[in-house]
Amino acid sequence: MTGDLVLRPIGRVESSLATRAEAPRQADEGAPDAWVVFDESVRVALQDLAPGDELILISWFDRADRDVLTVHPRGDLSRPATGVFSTRSPDRPNPLGLHRVTILATDGLRLHVDHLEALDGTPVVDVKPVLGDISER
């Protein structure tokens, strides 16, 4: 493979989660509400987002170990080592985080979202809507 991949943050997470030890493994395991603060350069891209919208937030796990190729699922050493591509481990060659969230409130460049397991300061690289049924598209 050739060529460079250029990825730039468009925002950052503001969360009460400061360390990986504090973070739940998945959002539905007790993740707190959080704010996502976006860069001024993407303001116009946020204009149609509203409370109640469901989004896929794509983050960059900047504190991940990019050399990890296998993990024991959920950190359970009694389980066999498994390739990271069949797990949701944050440690992986390209540590993208996928987070399904619902917007609770908007405030200019800030979105208040539910159940976000990303750590405080985590870079956000994209946002996509959750698609409904084909008849709703």
UniProtKB/TrEMBL annotation:
<dbReference type="InterPro" id="IPR023370">
    <property type="entry name" value="TrmO-like_N"/>
</dbReference>
<dbReference type="GO" id="GO:0008168">
    <property type="term" value="F:methyltransferase activity"/>
</dbReference>
<dbReference type="InterPro" id="IPR036413">
    <property type="entry name" value="YaeB-like_sf"/>
</dbReference>
<keyword id="KW-0949">S-adenosyl-L-methionine</keyword>
<keyword id="KW-0489">Methyltransferase</keyword>
<keyword id="KW-0808">Transferase</keyword>
<feature type="domain" description="TsaA-like">
    <location>
        <begin position="7"/>
        <end position="137"/>
    </location>
</feature>
<dbReference type="Pfam" id="PF01980">
    <property type="entry name" value="TrmO_N"/>
</dbReference>
<protein>
    <submittedName>
        <fullName>tRNA (N6-threonylcarbamoyladenosine(37)-N6)-methyltransferase TrmO</fullName>
    </submittedName>
</protein>
<dbReference type="InterPro" id="IPR036414">
    <property type="entry name" value="YaeB_N_sf"/>
</dbReference>
<comment type="similarity">
    <text>Belongs to the tRNA methyltransferase O family.</text>
</comment>
<dbReference type="GO" id="GO:0032259">
    <property type="term" value="P:methylation"/>
</dbReference>
<dbReference type="InterPro" id="IPR040372">
    <property type="entry name" value="YaeB-like"/>
</dbReference>
<dbReference type="InterPro" id="IPR023368">
    <property type="entry name" value="UPF0066_cons_site"/>
</dbReference>
